[in-house]
Structure formats: C-alpha cells, structure tokens
Amino acid sequence: MGVELKMPALSPTMEEGTLAKWLVKEGDSVKSGDILAEIETDKATMEFEAVDEGVIGKILVPEGTDGVKVGTAIAMLNGEGEVSSPSPLAGEGQAGTASQGEGATAASTPPPPAQPSAESPSPTRGEGQVPTPSDQQTQASPVELPKQQQQPETGTQQLVSAAAQTRTDPEVSPDTATQKLAVREALRDAMAEEMRRDERVFVIGEEVAQYQGAYKVTQGLLDEFGPRRVVDTPITEYGFAGLGSGAAMGGLRPIVEFMTFNFAMQAIDHIINSAAKTNYMSGGQMRCPIVFRGPNGAASRVAAQHSQNFGPWYASVPGLVVIAPYDAADAKGLLKAAIRSEDAVVFLENELLYGQQFDVPQVDDWMLPIGKARVMREGKDVSIVSYSIGVGLALEAAETLAGEGIAAEVIDLRTLRPLDRQAVLTSLAKTNRMVVVEEGWPTCSISSEIMAICMEEGFDDLDAPVMRVTDADVPLPYAANLEKLALIKAEDVVKAAKAVCYR
Amino acid sequence: MARSAKAQTAPEAVPLTPNRERPQQPQRYGASKEQLLDLYKQMLLIRRFEERAGQLYGLGLIGGFCHLYIGQEAVAVGLQSAMTVGKDSVITGYRDHGHMLAYGIDPKLIMAELTGRAAGISKGKGGSMHMFSVEHGFYGGHGIVGAQVSLGTGLAFKHQYSGDGGVCLSYFGDGAANQGQVYESFNMAELWKLPVIYAIENNHYAMGTSVERSASEPDFYKRGESFQIPGIQVDGMDVLAVRGAAETALEWTRSGKGPIILELKTYRYRGHSMSDPAKYRTREEVQDYRENRDPISRAEKELLGMGVAEEQLKGIDKEIKEIVVNAAKFAEDAPEPDAAELHTEVLVERY
C-alpha cells in the first residue's frame, strides 16, 4: 500500500513553502537518503530526502507550486514488496489533519502503534534539518489533533498564532496606502533604505552576506551593497562586537547582527563596557553610534541556551537604547530610527515574528520615535502592558475580554529604554488596573520595573495590585508540554486581567 | 626574571615558516640631533608628568586606580613619533597617560582628568583609565583588559572602509595578550588585511603575574603566527630601536599588507597601579633596569655624544618641570564638575 509523502517543515515556524523542483519522476525507485525534491521557503532552500524505500507513485503537487502548506500530501510512495505491520493510522489521520509534526518528516511511514504524544514538531535551530527517523516516532501518533492546528501545540505556537491574528494600527492618516510585509522584510527594508541614504552604514555578522542571513533578514543586501558594506564574519561574537564598536567610535554606523542574542552573551562586554559607556566616560566627546540587532526571546523547541529574553538585562544599562518592536511597521520605523541615532542601540527582534505579516504604511522614509509606547487598542477597564511578542497575546486576550464585557487597553512599550513611563501612567490613570505581559522571566524584569513605576508614581491611581504574566522562572525546557507550561499564554492574561478587575 | 635578563638585546625574529612575505628586520632609526632631542623631550615629559601624578595620588588628589608609565616611555614616544596625529588612530588600555602625551594632548587636560575636575579631558567623568581625544585620533583609554584590541581592529576597519589612508596603533600588554578577543581580532584583521599595528608592551608582569607564569609562548611577537600575522621583537628601552620598528610596521600596514605585531620588551619601574607594592619582583631587578637600561638616560648619553651641551639638557629639564608644575596647579585649582553633570551625556540624543 502507498504512503503519502508530505510537505515537510524546514524550520520550527514554517507554515508553507514552494515545491521548487522534483528530482524524481513517477515510477522511479528510491531508497532512504535519495533526494526527492527541492523545497523553498522565504528563508531557505532545502533538499527533501526519502526516508523509506519504494517506488514513486503519483506526484500530487507539480513542481513550481507556491504556498504548499506543511503537511500536504505531495506524492505517493508505493512500497516494493514490503509488507510491514499495518499502521493503525495509515489510512486515517494522515490525509486530513496536517500537523507540522507530520510535515517535519520527509516521508511518512507507519508509526509504532503505541506512540502517545501528539506534539511533534521536531524543530531545530537554524534552517531545516534533514529529518531523522526518530522524528517519525511521534509523527503519526494516534492522538487526535485539533482540526485547524497548523502549528505545533507548544508554548511558542500560542505566541505565533496570537501574532498572526492581530492587526497593526499605524499612526498615519487613514487614506495612506499600506503594504503587507513580513517583519523580516520590514527589517531588511529599513537597513537597505538607511544604507542607501548614508554611506557610513554597514552590516556585519555571521552569515549576513553570502548566506543571505541565518534568518534571511539581510536577504538581498549583499547584491545591492557589495561585500564592503555587508560583511560576513567568522564565528567570533566578542571580536566582531568589539570591531563594530571601534568602527562606530571612529565614525562609521555599524549594524551588528547577532545570529541570536543568546550568542551576544559572548560579546556583552563590548555592548555594555565599550558601546554604552563611552559617551559618558568621555564627557560627551566620543560617541558610539551602533546598532546591535538580532532575534531575542524564546524560539520554538530550542531549549534553554537558545531561548532567553535579554530585554531586562540591556534595559538596566544607562547609556543604551533598547528597542523591542512587535509588528512590521514598528520594526521598520524603529530600526531606521535606531540606525540614525547617535547612541548605541540594542534592537531585540523575535524569530517567531519574522515571518508574520503586518500592514506597513507606504510612506517615504517611515520613521518612528524611539522612547514612545503605542496604544494598540483602547479600553477603559484594565491596561495590559507588553512588548515584543507578548503584544500579540495581549491583543488576543483583549479580544476575549471584550467578549466578556471588559474593555482592555493594550500598550506596546516598543522601547524598553528609555521607557515611556508617561504612557504607562496615563493608561493606568484611565483604567486604574494593570497587567504586565512579558515573554521572559519574572525576576528583575521589565514587568518588575513597570510595577515599580506604578507603585512609585501611580499609587493613587491603583484600584488593584498590578499583576504580571511572565514565563515560568525556569530555564526553558525542551519537551513540548513543558515548554508550553513555561511560556506565557493568552488565557493567563485573561485570567490576570479578570483578577485585577475583581471579576 | 631570567628571561628579561637575557633579553638584553632583542633577538632576531626568526620566521617559523619562512613561506610567505615578511617585513624586513627593522633598522635602528638614524635620528638627527634635533630629532633625538625632540624624542628625549617627549620621554622626559612623560617621566616628569607621571612622577607628579604619583605625588598627587599620595596627596589624595588623584583617586581610584592610577597606572603609571614610568620606564616604558620609549615605547609610546618611539612608535607615535612615526605616526600622523589626526590621521592615524591610537588606542590603548588603562595605562594611557604616556600614550596621550606622546600624541600631543595637553598635559593640563590630562592632569585635570586625573584629579576629577570639570576641566579634565573627559570633564572629570572618566578618570585615569578613560580618556579620549577624537580630535587627535586618540580613542582611549579603556579599562577592560584586551577590549582595545577589538576596538582598535574596528578603527582599522574604519580606516580601510573610508580609504583615509590611516593606520590604527593598538597597544596592549603581556597580560592582555592572553585574552581570547585578541585572537578573534587577529583573525579578522589578517582575513581582511586591516591596517592595524598591534603593539604588545611586554613589561614582564601582568599586575603581579610574570610572563613565565602566564604565557605558554612567552615570545609575544610569535603570537600572530597562526593567523599569518608577522611579528617583530623590539628593544622597548631604546627609543630609536622602537622608532625604527614603527617605520617598518607603518610601511607594512600602509602598503595594504594587513596587520603586524610588534613586541616591545620594556619594564615598568612602579607597581602595576599606585596601590601595588610590587612584592613579586626583586629590588635588584628594578634597580638594574633603572641604572643600566633606562630609556631616558640612554638618549641623554647619546645626545651628549652627539655634542649636545649638558646645559642644554638641564634647560630642557627645567622647561619640562615647569609644564608639569603648571599642569598640576591647573588640575588642583580647577573646580569639580557641576552636580548637574551627573545626568548629562548618558545618551547623546533626547528621546
């Protein structure tokens, strides 16, 4: 009997891709390891390998097809005289439900009958790994998946789906045309525009040039600006962060990309001691206008060393500007402002948001003010303050709360330092209740800071204690269920908002 | 200190694998009488300035850490006299007073920074270890050991990027030479052929730890071999030997051949900082350097040999003393920064 070959997920956050090329045709015999097809996403092109032996039956999706959802059957593989134990699921779950877990394996095979887990996204850091047989064990499990579930049911999936549901609210006149842009495109456009405008701006980091960016944020920059201004480095974070800082002191405008901010820990000395303190230590004589940027916070299933929100760390340092945008319009407008700033800026992106699309106003030179929060949704009953990916959950929670008669106001801080205290206090004065939502640890966090501000400066406006919804105070675990438990969820925000409203 | 004793004259830097182009062994600089007089003056200014700083420290007028350059003067003067102020950049660690004076920065502004006054070059906010003069192309003054190596590599990147023809001179010590970022910088500098001179001031002690106890390869000029960066060992107690090496290094870097390492064998007479009693070395060792190898005495002898009158040298000494006394007086009399300065210059812009 035939087995469906399904559209694989090449990365933890991939939802669809292009079937660029078939390297086999119907009737070909294939064995494990043979390359069957080339799959493209906006980030990468990957080869799709066979896991099992067999003969290619029908090709269901022709090459050149765009927007093939992860998990879609793309071809049939007929077994060659192989009669293995029939899968309890072979005919049932695979055709209809397209979980990313299934997609993550290259070719479907009958699962072991007793596999209990349904949560099986097998993501890895970086761009699509060759699926391994161990992925299959959880791949077609007998547990029912929710019907529309396109994402792994993990903690990060919550964050992603919340982000996908929300709209932007750009501060422009209603007749301004907008353009749908993924966050990664918005960031790229911001860099490209500033590089066109100012010869001193250059990008440096690992895989930013020839590879087109580990997360494809710098895609196309090498072609336009050449290797002098788009510089691939060795794996040497401390070194290139220092080199960038020195170049900035000398008068250039470096954009230093960290593949993730987890690796910036190797370079944090230069960010703090060299970049942030120079202007002050020199009595204003020597500046360090540099942008350190890259993804920050939890990605998906990459566990503790690759999942951490450094917002509170950097936001505690005088001399730094720290920006953590949520949507594409803010990402673009604030990155442009960061590149033009005379100060050292830490620009915290989020991998899970890179592929999310938002409306970006089509105006020349879209710049946004650093240090200004944004009211994402107005409401009178409770303020929900957040930043970065937490804003998606806050908006989702606000929607739920609206259905229960609670009008929540959602504030996106956007800049973590200098913090827009006034926006926080103004909203508090309006609603008298506040919940802070942060995809990060609770201790010594941005949430702690917001709570302190409310205590010190907004005490008389408080009708209830400020509450916070944060990740669990643990290193982020790998197991899907534990990861889900560790990360913030919209329902927790709803619960907290109701609690401060005494409902 | 067996090693330093036998390193009386800089040995030939024998290439480990002579399979690529290397700079010529530098020649001792053939200075004219006027040129040597000028180098002598500069060294003397550093010596007297540092002695005065030590006194002011003792009086409580200078606080915190204060690292004196006494004994190492020939290095800064020999190297920087070959460079162009404003075009070539210089960056160093915390022992920075001498490097600043050798680049023509006003001693008053430096001394007033040491005493923490508003008139100091960093408005009193930086102190001994954090001083800068962008105007001169002096980029600090950095307190984190080794940081200036990556930063200096970045300055060289800037020279190359903007095609301004400049070279960066990045100083660090035998201690900093063991920091990881030094080698990260070496790798990038050679990969991209950046115009940077890595000047390793080997004064034999990283605070209290001798080179013998901390360096598996104590010949620091060889430290670039894995990166194909050539290295030259130089007698750092002879200002003309240093100047000669600077000429060779500048020629190498300016011609686009990439970085070069100079190891300058030198010695500091004082402790690591003012609070260091220097118990880790013998009185005799220090005495030997002071009496037999002092760079200023050496230049003085040479000048006398060239026919300079003793009277003239005495006159120079007086002139220098006056500059230093005035700088100290300025630094003592200048007011402290205004309290309002506490919150200024944290950021450049207002948001």
Q: How much of the residues of chain A is beta strand, in percent?
A: 15-25%
Give the H and E element order of chain B.
HHHEHHEHEHEEEHEHEHHH
Tell the overall outline of chain A: globular
Helix content of chain A: 25-40%
What would your notes on this structure say?
The complex is a heterodimer of chains A (503) and B (351). With 503 residues, chain A is an alpha/beta fold. Helices cover 30% and strands 21% of the residues of chain A. The model of chain A is unreliable at 82-152 (pLDDT under 50). The model of chain B is unreliable at 1-7 (pLDDT under 50). Chain B has one domain (33-100, 146-331): 3-Layer(aba) Sandwich (Rossmann fold), CATH 3.40.50.970. Chain B is an alpha/beta fold and 351 residues long. In chain B, helix 2 (33-58) runs antiparallel to helix 11 (295-305), helix 5 (107-114) packs across helix 12 (310-333) and helix 6 (147-162) runs parallel beside helix 7 (180-191). In chain B, strand 7, helix 9 and strand 8 (260-265) form a beta-alpha-beta unit. Chain B contains 12 helices and 8 strands. The interface between A and B is large, with 48 and 47 residues.
List the helices and strands and how they pair.
The complex is a heterodimer of chains A (503) and B (351).
Chain A: E1 2-6, E2 16-22, E3 29-30, E4 35-40, E5 45-49, E6 54-59, E7 65-69, E8 73-78, H1 93-96, H2 100-103, H3 133-139, H4 155-165, E9 178-182, H5 183-197, E10 201-205, H6 221-229, E11 230-232, H7 237-249, E12 253-257, H8 268-276, H9 278-281, E13 291-295, H10 311-315, E14 320-323, H11 328-340, E15 344-349, H12 351-354, E16 357-361, E17 374-377, E18 382-386, H13 390-403, E19 408-412, E20 415-417, H14 421-431, E21 434-438, H15 446-457, E22 467-470, H16 480-486, H17 490-500
Parallel strand pairs in A: 10-11, 10-12, 12-13, 13-15, 14-15, 18-19, 18-21, 21-22
Antiparallel strand pairs in A: 1-8, 2-4, 2-7, 3-6, 4-5, 6-8, 9-16, 14-20, 17-19
Helix pairs in contact in A: 4-13, 4-16, 5-11, 7-8, 13-17, 14-15
Chain B: H1 2-6, H2 33-58, H3 73-80, E1 89-92, H4 97-101, H5 107-114, E2 138-141, H6 147-162, E3 168-173, H7 180-191, E4 196-202, E5 205-206, E6 209-210, H8 211-214, E7 231-235, H9 239-254, E8 260-265, H10 283-292, H11 295-305, H12 310-333
Parallel strand pairs in B: 1-2, 1-3, 3-4, 4-8, 7-8
Antiparallel strand pairs in B: 5-6
